[in-house]
Specification:
It is a single chain. The protein has five helices and four strands, in the order βαβαβαβαα. It is an alpha/beta fold. It has one domain: Rossmann fold (3-Layer(aba) Sandwich), CATH 3.40.50. Helix 2 crosses helix 3. The chain is globular and about 50 Å long.
Length: about 130
């Protein structure tokens, strides 16, 4: 699995997941940081896929659908063996690391299940700071 995000979110998500489930030798974090070009990002994601994938399918989790990491991953997915999920959160990373033969709908469901709202403010109240 490769996590590719804007900034250093990928490192943080992978480190947090490893804190919970243990070392993930077949996972890589790719950060798209200020000053990097899309070509730099493409090369980094390709390298990460090669390091862990060999000829096996690889899952790429990205932060923002339509963002540079997502567009790079979607292009790489044209190979037919790379799968991409956008909107990554920590529950998705944990599910991808702990479920045998990572089932994409189950990973998405884990991500959605990890989203909740606390407090008694109505959802449309606005003015949150």
């Amino acid at each position: 699995m490769v996590i590719a995000t804007h900034g250093t979110l990928a490192n943080g998500l992978l480190a947090a997941a490893e804190m919970i489930v243990g070392t993930a030798p077949d996972a890589r974090a790719v950060n798209f940081e200020i000053g990097m070009s899309v070509d730099d990002l493409t090369n980094a994601v390709n390298l990460a896929i090669e390091e862990i994938g060999g000829d096996d399918p690889v899952l790429v989790l990205v932060d923002l659908a339509g963002g540079s990491p997502s567009r790079v991953a979607a292009t790489l997915a044209l190979d037919g063996r790379t799968k991409v999920l956008a909107g990554v959160n920590l529950p998705m990373v944990i599910a991808a690391l702990t479920e045998e033969d990572a089932d994409l709908p189950a990973i998405v469901a884990a991500g959605r299940a990890g989203i909740d709202m606390y407090g008694n403010a109505p959802a449309a109240s606005g003015g949150l700071r």
